[in-house]
Specification:
Length: 222
Amino acid sequence: MQSSVKSSVISIGKRASFVAAMALLTTMTSFIPSEAANRAGGPCPKLNAKARIGGDQYVCTRNPIVKNAKRTWVWAGCLDANALYTDSVKRLATLKAGLVTAKAKLDELVAEIPAAEAKAKEYDGKIASTQIKLDAAKLKYQENLAKGATYSKATEQWNNAVKSYERAIAGFKRAADNWREKSSDVTAQQKRLDLQSQTIAASELEIKSNLQGRNQACRPGL
């Protein structure tokens, strides 16, 4: 009887020890970080999944500098550097397209200069001929004004003629100036073109710097 009881006690004790051991193992396992199975540059389960490895943020994706890359844990800093590089490349393409448009506009303005100069000279001729008429009208006005009230109607007519010629000359001068502004437009467009070229040169340097930064940040296994 005593032997049977002892065996039962031992059996119960063994089961209790096993349960306690399993509980301890479960407790210890719960304290093992989930990132322990992950490593930088190592394979990852799901695209765009995120994990912390060595205190840094990583993303499950394809390394942008590795040809035919598989899905791995890529440092978030690499993705930021890659976005900076690709954005600068797009910006350069936009700048170069704008430069082509600016050059075409400059060529168009330069081609218009001879015709514009000819038009300006045409209005210069109109100004000169109208000035002669204006001087004559002023003289007639003064002559009739000196003759007194008897010639008041003629005086008024010549006075109106003077004003009309003055308005015509002012209009011809504005037209001549507008045509001559074509040369100013060429100068302004050339300045814009030079500025765009400088911006492109700076953008090309920026791309080189961003490319170096991306290559360093995206080194496999980093």
